[in-house]
Design a protein that fits this description.
Low-confidence stretches: none
Radius of gyration: 15 Å
Helix content: 25-40%
Oligomer: single chain
Shape: globular
Distance between the termini: 30 Å
Strand content: 25-35%
Largest sheet: 3 strands, antiparallel
Structural class: alpha+beta
Length: 117
């Protein structure tokens, strides 16, 4: 697979481990909006549309539900062990941390994304 971010010597860095490929695919999925991917318009979490619409407790709760549902739909081999969304209202940002493991394995990892406007 190809790792994210695209910062290799020739733009792409290859991944040779399953967990690295899944992690890159997950980041790509979370940062892709619905309708952005040709021939698969339903692909993507669409969370960017929800993130900066009046950040508050209710929006964080609905955002968490959307993330959990979308990941379970597109990544059935992943099990979310921890999902935290922390708002930084003064900076108009959300800190997103997701810990996950591969179902029926001991392989686990996490991703952290800081959404800022």
């Amino acid at each position: 697979g190809i790792t994210v971010p695209l910062s290799g010597k020739a733009v792409f860095n290859s991944s040779y481990e399953t967990i690295d490929a899944i992690k890159s695919n997950l980041i790509n999925f979370l940062l892709t909006g619905k309708g952005e991917r040709y021939f698969n318009p339903s692909f993507g979490s669409g969370i960017r549309n929800l993130i900066f619409a009046n950040i508050g407790r209710e929006s964080l709760t609905s955002l968490e539900l959307v993330i959990r549902q979308e990941i379970s739909n597109y990544f059935p081999t992943l099990s979310i062990t921890e999902l935290s969304l922390r708002d930084q209202l003064d900076n108009n940002a959300i800190l997103f941390n997701l810990k996950f493991n591969l179902v029926d394995t001991l392989i686990e990892d996490e991703i952290t994304i800081n959404f800022e406007q």
